[in-house]
Write a structure and sequence with these properties.
The protein has helices spanning 11-24, 63-73, 89-97, 107-114, 116-125, 141-151, 174-192, 249-266, 297-304, 308-316, 396-409, 419-426, 429-432, 440-444; strands at residues 4-7, 27-33, 47-52, 77-79, 101-102, 155-159, 169-171, 197-201, 207-215, 221-233, 236-242, 270-278, 284-290, 333-340, 342-343, 349-350, 353-354, 357-359, 366-369, 377-378, 385-393, 411-413. By secondary structure, it is an alpha+beta fold. The chain has three domains: 4-103, Rossmann fold, CATH 3.40.50.20; 132-201, Dna Ligase, domain 1 (2-Layer Sandwich), CATH 3.30.1490.20; 207-444, 2-Layer Sandwich (D-amino Acid Aminotransferase, Chain A, domain 1). An eight-stranded antiparallel β-sheet has the order 13-12-9-10-11-14-21-19, with helices on both faces. The protein binds ligand MV4.
């Protein structure tokens, strides 16, 4: 096992990784930008190095600073958390070249699955359903028009280097399509330095269901059931839960098995998430793989009784998964609420500032993953996540009741937060009955 790990991230996920390491007897080295200097979570590391100025490109995205901190800090491995460098195959490869274990998939599997067209090919070869669409990249307009005619409008133009909704365009007719293709390719070139685009049938009003997987370096792959992340606003998840209450058991089993087939076929290792869209008839379609630990991982930890971050570290150190699929339960119901410092009266823009008063909820079934404290200043440079409330109870009804109770106990003063939005969602009949789709929040409020 590793003796010392560098945590190449900040905020709640940096703290989450340091907590896992402490429990495993592993020392940690933290890195921080000038904007995070003095934050209390850094006290949980054995050592902490400043790696640059506040903008992420000068610090948390600066490979050279991070590799240098690994050398000076004398670590054997680096945990990238989520965001920043976590899905950057070039960084993962550089770590390997420097003899530092990257706690995540091998850079080749990451690159293969990071490219959406290539991920679609892998899914097809693993007999995992994909959304009807083009074979590979679109090479000319005529081909796109022909395929769109075959699959039927509306279609969605997607960037092969995209993800998380960036560079997507809906086309409802041939004229939309011709214009959209050019715009999407230009946008993709600008954003990802890769103009490649492809077409998919546009699934209207889908649910977003994703499967947590875990794979070791010895060919063992298991799933840790699914999460329903349908409650999103502008591609930002707001509420996540496990299991997906709206799915019949048979579909859940199928979707989880499909995710494992995809992982086995691709040679992916470590923790990952396979994302699907589910249409109103419960047909499911693979859309992308997230090659990292995700923000919403705690709901899967609670229903399965596992520690995913500890498993990431163990697998990266070469340990075998001693979990057998049959021994991974899905007990009770878990819901996560993301608490962001955002102003609902100002289109949910970030609301940076100082937290002047903080009361965290507690009691049965309540977990808080957060790095903030009274007097904490939320920097304007990064995402606005100030913490996660995660609730686990025997039934979904009880989980909703406990979550509402915990939200009532939660006090954050000094900045605006998404707590009022979470209250409205959890008390809305459509959420309670799980009759929602990815457009619900924007349609309703
Ligand atoms: C789609 C789709 C409908 N049809 N693909 C958005 C982010 C990226 N992960 C994929 N996304 C979508 N892909 C087809 N063929 C609708 C979305 C989508 C969405 C997906 C999941 C959760 C929220 C969403 C919000 C808008 C669009």
């Amino acid at each position: 096992m590793f003796q010392r790990i560098l945590v190449a991230n900040r905020g709640e996920i940096a703290l989450r990784v340091m907590r896992a390491c402490r429990e495993m007897g592993i020392q940690t080295v933290a890195v921080f930008s000038e904007a995070d200097r003095g934050a209390h979570y850094l006290d949980s590391a054995d050592e902490a190095f400043c790696i640059g100025n506040a903008p992420a490109s000068d610090s948390y995205l600066d490979y050279k600073q991070i590799i240098a901190a690994c050398e000076v800090g004398n670590v054997e491995a680096v945990h990238p958390g989520y965001g920043f460098l976590s899905e950057n195959a070039a960084f993962a490869e550089m770590c390997r070249d420097c003899n530092i274990e990257f706690i995540g998939p091998h850079h080749e599997a990451m690159a293969k699955l990071g490219d959406k067209v290539s991920a679609r090919e892998i899914a097809k070869s693993a007999k995992v359903p994909v959304v009807p669409g083009t074979e590979g990249l679109i090479s000319d307009e005529a081909e796109a028009v022909k395929v769109a005619g075959e699959i039927g409008y509306p279609v969605l133009i997607k960037a092969t280097a995209g993800g998380g909704g960036k560079g997507m365009r809906v086309a409802r007719n041939e004229m939309n399509l011709k214009q959209g293709l050019k715009q999407a390719a230009q946008e993709a070139e600008k954003a990802f330095a890769n103009p490649g685009v492809y077409l998919e049938k546009y699934i209207e009003a889908p649910r977003h269901v994703e499967v947590q997987v875990l794979a070791d370096n010895h060919g063992n792959v298991v799933h840790l059931w699914e999460r329903d992340c349908t409650m999103q606003r502008k591609h930002q998840k707001v509420v996540e839960e496990s299991p997906a209450y709206a799915l019949p058991n048979k579909v859940r089993e199928e979707i989880c098995k499909a995710a494992v087939r995809l992982v086995k076929t691709s040679g992916y290792t470590n923790a990952g998430t396979v994302e699907f869209l589910v249409d109103p008839d419960h047909n499911f379609y693979f859309i992308e793989v997230n090659a990292r630990i995700q923000v919403e991982h705690p709901v899967s930890e609670l229903v399965t009784g596992t520690d995913l971050v500890q498993w990431q570290i163990r697998v990266a150190a070469g340990e075998k998964l001693d979990l057998k699929q049959k021994q991974i339960p899905c007990n009770g119901s878990a819901i996560e609420i993301r608490i962001n410092a955002e102003d609902p009266d100002n289109d949910f823009r970030g609301s940076p500032g100082t937290i002047t008063k903080l009361r965290l909820p507690g009691g049965p079934g309540v977990r808080i993953d957060s790095h903030v404290h009274e007097g904490y200043r939320i920097p304007p440079y990064y995402d606005s996540l100030i913490g996660k409330l995660i609730v686990h109870r025997p039934t979904r009804e009880q989980t909703i009741a406990t979550t509402l109770r915990a939200l009532d106990e939660f006090v954050v003063e000094g900045v605006k937060t998404t707590i009022p939005l979470a209250r409205k969602i959890l008390s809305h009949p459509a959420f309670v009955e799980s009759k929602v789709d990815t457009t619900f929040i924007e349609r309703t409020w």
